[in-house]
Amino acid sequence: MSLLVDVFVRDPDGTLHILDVPDDVYQSGGFESWRTTVWGSDKVRSLGARLLPLLAEDDLYAEPDQVPRLLDEVALVRERLDEVAHGTRCPRDVEEHREQIAHRLRIIEASCHKALEIGGGVLIW
Fold first, then answer.
1. What pLDDT digit, counting tens, does each position of 98-110 carry?
2. Residues near 59 by Cβ (< 8 Å), separated by ≥ 6?
3. Model's pTM, two decimal places?
4. Which helix (H) or strand (E) covers residue 85, if one does?
5. CA of 34: how far to CAs of 14, 85, 88, 114, 124, in Å?
6. Which of 10, 109, 111, 113 has its CA 20 to 30 A from that of 103?
């Protein structure tokens, strides 16, 4: 299983609507295990991330007012990518793990930008 990264909007009554994405668009936020081994890891928490580590417990609903904070956390992890890759090492070599994290960060970042354009939020689930 993979974590999915989607953009959503809410109706005035609070009903959530996930936006459609083209079938050929890859929207993975990492493996399901990354909830705890990467995004919710002690390493990512130690950087000061507060939204991404929520994935260790549940799905992450970054409401529209939280999307800028999520973008900040993406930038924070990217700035310390080598450190995060070494500190969250999976059963693959560090360089491959680093590239996988970087790829997932780009997906999350692109979803955040789309959400900002339309006044929506980002769901990682």
1. 999 999 999 999 9
2. 123, 124, 125
3. 0.94
4. helix 81-87
5. 29, 12, 9, 23, 12
6. 10
